[in-house]
């Protein structure tokens, strides 16, 4: 797949992912009332065994995460995985329960776990993945549909969340984007995974995008 995704195609994918991220960042900023910093999208080919280490390298991530997963489908199909650290998960409880005091950044109040906390994170995951990927695919003439987010794990090591047994493919294209508030109180990492057949469909769409530039 490294040969299929040429440098021009990779640059085009990064460019349109940036536009999708901008839409996701604007919606999240409106929800949180804070400025959102957006990372440059990172693209890498991975297999199931190397995915946890690849994500750790990209994110410099060591602490436990809460992870939610949802599928998307158009001509291109794949999986979107949203990762939240404990501080971000706790802040969502504050945002969606306005009658509570804002949680402490660490300790028991900093962990997600009950159904209401997961519901809040599901709303955020759906907002970010939906805005980012819809913004991306609309530019290449695609309109994706999404399944509801489902929990992969709560306060777990990244290796447990991304264990090969949970991923029904051998090799995939990984697209990673990070959204972080200016004050650091909230951050989310969106991992988009597309298999070989999905990458072929993506490349065909990207070639049409490049031909129209």
Overall number of domains:
1
Helix-strand pattern: HEEHEEHHEEHEEH
Round the Cα radius of gyration to an integer and report it.
17 Å
* CATH architecture annotation name: 3-Layer(aba) Sandwich
- What would the principal axes of the Cα set say about the shape? globular
Features:
213 residues, Chemotaxis protein chec, eight-stranded antiparallel beta sheet, alpha+beta, single chain
Q: What does the secondary structure layout of this molecule look like, with pairings?
A:
Blueprint: H1 7-32, E1 36-38, E2 42-47, H2 51-59, E3 65-73, E4 77-84, H3 86-96, H4 115-138, E5 145-146, E6 150-156, H5 158-161, E7 171-181, E8 187-195, H6 196-211
Antiparallel strand pairs: 1-7, 2-7, 3-4, 3-5, 3-6, 4-8, 7-8
Description:
About 7% of the residues have low confidence. β7 and β8 form a beta hairpin. The chain is α+β, with helices and mostly antiparallel strands. Strands 1, 2, 3, 4, 5, 6, 7 and 8 form an eight-stranded antiparallel beta sheet that branches. It is built from six helices and eight strands. It starts with 6 loop residues before the first helix and ends with a helix. It has one domain: Chemotaxis protein chec (3-Layer(aba) Sandwich).
Structure described in brief:
The protein is α+β, with helices and mostly antiparallel strands. The protein has one domain (7-211): Chemotaxis protein chec.
């Amino acid at each position: 797949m490294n040969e299929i995704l040429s440098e021009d195609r990779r640059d085009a994918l990064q460019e349109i992912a940036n536009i999708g991220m901008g839409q996701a960042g604007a919606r999240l900023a409106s929800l949180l009332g804070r400025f959102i910093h957006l990372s440059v999208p990172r693209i890498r080919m991975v297999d199931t065994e190397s995915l946890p280490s690849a994500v750790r390298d990209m994110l410099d991530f060591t602490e436990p995460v809460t992870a939610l997963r949802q599928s998307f489908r158009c001509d291109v199909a794949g999986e979107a995985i949203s990762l939240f650290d404990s501080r971000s998960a706790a802040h969502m409880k504050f945002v969606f329960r306005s009658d509570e005091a804002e949680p402490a950044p660490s300790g028991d109040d900093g962990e997600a776990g009950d159904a209401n906390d997961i519901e809040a994170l599901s709303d955020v995951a759906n907002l970010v993945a939906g805005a980012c990927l819809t913004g991306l695919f609309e530019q290449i003439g695609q309109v994706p549909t999404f399944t509801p987010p489902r929990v992969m794990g709560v306060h777990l090591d990244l290796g447990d969340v991304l264990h090969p047994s949970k991923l029904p493919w051998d090799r995939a294209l990984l697209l990673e984007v990070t959204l972080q508030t200016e004050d650091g109180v909230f951050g989310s990492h969106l991992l988009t995974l597309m298999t070989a057949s999905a990458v072929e469909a993506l490349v065909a769409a990207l070639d049409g995008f490049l031909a129209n530039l």
